[in-house]
Design brief:
Elements lengths: L7 H9 L4 H10 E4 L27 H10 L5 E6 L2 H6 L23 E2 L4 H6 L2 H15 L3 E6 L1 H6 L3 H12 L2 E5 L10 H14 L13 E7 L5 H12 L2 E7 L4 H5 L6 E4 L2 H15 L3 E3 L5 H15 L2 H29 L3 E5 L4 H11 L3 E6 L5 H5 L34 H9 L18 E4 L4 H11 L3 E4 L1 H8 L5 E3 L11 H16 L10 H4 L14
Parallel strand pairs: 2-3, 2-4, 4-5, 6-7, 6-8, 8-9, 10-11, 10-13, 11-12, 13-14
Antiparallel strand pairs: 1-12
Helix pairs in contact: 1-18, 3-9, 6-8, 9-12, 13-14, 14-20
Length: 544
């Protein structure tokens, strides 16, 4: 419940009144009250714009989105950071991505931090020589089937040509070596890195495989990164339903999975922002359509499984899916009934990247909790408002930094899985293709949407709303906990999880129950409330 103000418009005013006028005008467009009009039309929000210098943001950099998020969870691509060691360490899978090699003989490079460790000498005289030496050394030791090279900020500034080095070393070593121009400054957030990763995987890996996987109902799962083992239990669930998983982008993923992804008959997108580019390109080149799914939340999981069954339109598959749903929902409903007694009416806030600020609202709703405010770190307008707004989004200078690939149907491999008539028939029955409704249309009226939330805004919202739980990432965790508010870390789950599908939903209910009902939080007092200390204040110049 809102304890200080009755109207979210007043809360918005409170959030921006401390800013200089120029900053306030910008933030005003990034903080909106979700007031849906007729036909579920939501307000326009300003997103995917640069963070104002000096504001403490939750965002990561372009390199983090490319290397750390999309490519990092792939176990048998040797991911080599070309740059200072700090960049390599930063992206060294601190998000608890997990993997499961088929045998001890299979490659798993995820436990290693590969870097050229650029020093002053390379910054001054160039680092291409050192990069070549690092590639040779890595190949001699590990014999990988592929090497990815990731450029960091200094590389872009001094002009090292990682793509030329990649081509040269690929010819010399006889393996697939490719580069990612994902310098940290290249976009406004890690979102640019996702796009760059999608492009290079599509150019250099996807479609290169020739081993068509077996299975009657073959799908790819896109935008699932196996945090805390989520992908493992999704894979097990799909297998029980009789659905064959060709590749996951990128949780528990492999090079061959990517290379053979074009053999799937359907792409299912979890995190729309990080992977929608490659789904669109696979459809254009190979004829594989995509749908939006959500395996976070029991009802959402059941709905997603039914959507997959509806697409394949096979009575045996549908029967199997319904059998699995019925078996799983018995335990889920029992857990919901028990935990709802203690969680009903409590409130949550979610400020998390990817799809998590959206999808986790389903899990909270299943135990009677209400999401009063939410937002993304690196979203675009279509993540908030839905893909219907794509034609109205203007391409800005930062977006033009990222290559847009021209994709044509492959002369040999293009194979439309459904005719236009079949797709239209499925759409008439409610199955949407290449579509995402966005977060805002599914949220309640008068909830608050905040894009690229700052540390100040987070603390102010906690002060005003006094939520029962706050969900964000590791950078925000300890500051939030010092306010006496339970903080669920949804970027890596800390020590919890998995939280996906039916079994994960039960884990989530229990985790949240323990957190919001623990009495320890009432004893936590911020240092500034318990110690008398001088307050440092400064006046900001009011820009007009």
């Amino acid at each position: 419940m809102v304890t200080k103000y009755n109207k979210p418009e007043k809360i918005k005013e409170e959030l921006i009144k401390k800013y200089p006028s120029k900053v306030a005008r910008k933030r005003e467009q990034q903080i909106v009250v979700n007031e849906k009009k007729d036909q579920e039309i939501v307000p326009e929000i300003k997103a995917n714009v640069r963070t104002t210098p000096g504001i403490i943001t939750q965002r990561g950099c372009t390199y983090a989105g490319c290397k750390g998020v999309v490519l990092g969870p792939t176990r048998d691509i040797l991911n080599l950071t070309h740059g200072p060691i700090g960049c390599g360490f930063y992206s060294w899978l601190t998000r608890r991505n997990q993997t499961r090699p088929n045998s001890d003989d299979d490659s798993n490079f995820m436990t290693y931090c590969f870097s050229t460790d650029m020093q002053d000498n390379e910054i001054i005289f160039g680092g291409e020589k050192k990069l070549k030496e690092a590639i040779k050394e890595a190949y001699e030791i590990f014999k990988p089937k592929a090497i990815g090279i990731f450029a960091t900020c200094p590389v872009g500034l001094i002009g090292d040509d990682i793509h030329s080095v990649a081509r040269q070393m690929s010819e010399e070593l006889g393996i697939n070596i490719f580069g990612f121009s994902c310098e940290g400054y290249k976009g406004v957030s890690q979102s640019a890195g996702h796009h760059i990763a999608n492009n290079q995987l599509f150019k250099h890996v996807i479609g290169k495989g020739t081993d068509a996987p077996e299975g009657e109902f073959k799908i790819n799962l896109l935008g699932e990164y196996n945090i805390g083992g989520d992908a493992f239990i999704i894979e097990e669930l799909l297998e029980r339903c009789g659905i064959s998983l060709v590749s996951t982008f990128s949780g528990n993923s492999t090079y061959d999975g990517f290379a053979n992804a074009h053999y799937a008959d359907l792409n299912c997108i979890m995190c729309h922002r990080s992977i929608n580019y490659v789904a669109d390109m696979i459809e254009k080149k190979y004829g594989v359509p995509w749908i939006k799914v959500n395996f976070l939340g029991a009802e959402a999981t059941a709905k997603s499984l039914r959507k997959i069954g509806q697409y394949f339109n096979d009575p045996k598959l549908t029967k199997k899916i319904e059998k699995v749903i019925k078996e799983e929902m018995e335990e889920v409903l029992e857990a919901q009934k028990e935990i709802r007694k203690r969680c009903e009416g409590k409130t949550a806030m979610l400020f998390v990247g990817g799809s998590r600020a959206h999808h986790y609202q389903d899990l909270f709703a299943e135990i009677g909790m209400k999401t009063v405010a939410a937002g993304y770190e690196f979203a675009h307008r279509d993540d908030y408002e839905g893909r219907k707004v794509l034609p109205t989004i203007k391409v800005d200078a930062d977006s033009r930094n990222i290559e847009e690939l021209t994709v044509e149907p492959d002369p040999k491999e293009f194979n439309p899985r459904k005719t236009p008539e079949e797709l239209a028939k499925l759409e008439s029955k409610g199955l949407s293709f290449a579509d995402y409704e966005g977060m805002m249309p599914t949220m309640e009226n008068n909830t608050l949407i905040v894009d690229d939330i700052s540390q100040f805004e987070s603390e102010k919202l906690i002060e005003i709303y006094k939520p029962d739980i706050f969900c964000a990432g590791i950078k925000e965790k300890y500051a939030v906990q010092k306010t006496g508010t339970p903080m669920l870390q949804l970027h890596s789950y800390d020590y919890g999880g998995p939280f996906a599908v039916f079994k994960g939903a039960i884990n989530f209910y229990k985790t949240v129950d323990r957190m919001v009902n623990a009495k320890v939080w009432s004893y936590v007092k911020p240092p500034w409330k318990t110690k008398v200390s001088p307050v440092l204040e400064a006046a900001l110049v009011n820009e007009s």
